[in-house]
Amino acid sequence: MQSRHPERIFFYGPLLLMVLLLASCIGRPFSSQHSGSARFDFALIGDTPYNDFDATNSFPNMIEEINRHRLAFVVHDGDIKSGGAPCSDEILFERYRQFQTFRHPLIYVFGDNEWSDCDRNKTNHFDPEERLEKLREIFTRGNETLGCRTFTLARQSEDPLFAKYRENVRWIFGQVLFMGLNLPGDSNNYGRPEYSGRMRANLAWLRDSFALGKERDLRGLMLIIQANPHFDLPSTNKLRAGFNDLLSALEAETIAFKKPVVLVHGDSHYFRIDKPMIASKSKRRVENFTRVETFGNPDVHWVRATVDWQDPNVFSFRQVIVEKNRVNHQRY
Do the domain assignments include residue 50? Predict the structure, then answer.
C-alpha cells in the first residue's frame, strides 16, 4: 500500500544513520584537486539494489567498500529496483537515502525499472511519465550531485528548449568530459508518445557535448546510459529500433572526435569490456570506442575506472569484487 505521506520516509529516516552520515561529512569537503591532475579514479555501478536482500545486505556492503577508497566520484547507471517491485514513492525515497550514504559525489542515471516499465506490472500499475517526473523531483533537485560530498553538474534543463530534461547531465573532470543521458532498457520506451521528445533532447545533448569536448581540446569523453543499445542486433530488430538514431550519431561523433570515447551502460547484468562499434562505411571496428557494462544483480560488485590523460588510451578499468558479496560456490 502506498503511503499518503512518502516524504516522511525521507525526513524521518533512522536517526542514528543520519547522525553517522553527517559525522562522516564533517571536515571532509569535496576536493577539486583531481580536476587539474593527470590521474584519478572513480567507481561505476548499476542494476542494484534489486530486492530486499540487495537493499539491506549486498548494496550496503558495496557502499561500505567503495567509501573506503579514494575516488573522485561514483556513477550509478540505473535500475535501482527490480521490474517486479512496485514503483512506489517509498522505494524511491529509500534509494535516495541510501545514495546519500556514499561519501563520494554520486551521479545517478535513470533506468527503465524506475519509470518506463512501471505500467507493465498488473499488480503494481503506475503511470510511467508521472514516475519520470517523480524521479526528477527526488533525484535532480538543484545542480549538485548526490552523495555526502558534492560538486556541480551542468543540466540540459538550463536550455529553455529542453527545460524538463533535468536528468541529462555532464561534467568535466581531469581533462575528460562525462555525460549522462536518459536511455532506458530494454527498448528505450520506443513507440511511446514521450519517446520522440526525449530523443530530440538526447541527441542534442550528445552532439553539444562532443562539440564542447572538441572546443576545449579535452582528452576523452565518457557517455553513461542505462540501456544495452544492442550493438549485436540488426537495425531492423524491434529492440534495436529505439537506439538506431543514438548509435548513428554516436558513431559519427566518435569518429570525428578521434580521441578515446567510452560508453558505459547496465541493463543486461553482464560485466564486460569490449569494442562493439563497427563503422558503417569501412565495416571495421572503431578503435577509439570502448563499451563497459557494469555488474548487476545478483552480482553486486563494482568497476574501478582510472583516467590518466597522459596515457594515449586515457581510460582503464578493473573489476572490484566486494568480499562480503563473494559467493561460496562450494556450498551449492
Answer: yes
Can you spell out the DSSP letters for 196-254? HHHHHHHHHHHHHHHHHHHHTT-SEEEEE-SS---TTS-TTSHHHHTTHHHHHHHHHHH
In a domain, 178, yes or no: yes
Q: Map residue 304 onto helix, strand or coil.
A: strand
Q: Any idea how long the chain is? A: 332
Neighbours of 241 (CB within 10 A): 16
Q: Are 81 and 114 in contact (CB under 8 A)?
A: yes
Q: What is the pLDDT of residues 243-298, one digit of tens each?
A: 999 999 999 999 999 999 999 999 999 999 999 999 999 999 999 999 999 999 99
pTM score of the predicted model: 0.90
Q: Range of 312's domain?
A: 36-324
Q: Give the type of residue at 282.
A: S
Confidence of residue 4 (pLDDT cuts 50, 70, 90): very low
CATH of the domain at 235: 3.60.21.10
Sorting pLDDT into bands at 50, 70 and 90, what band is 24? Answer: low
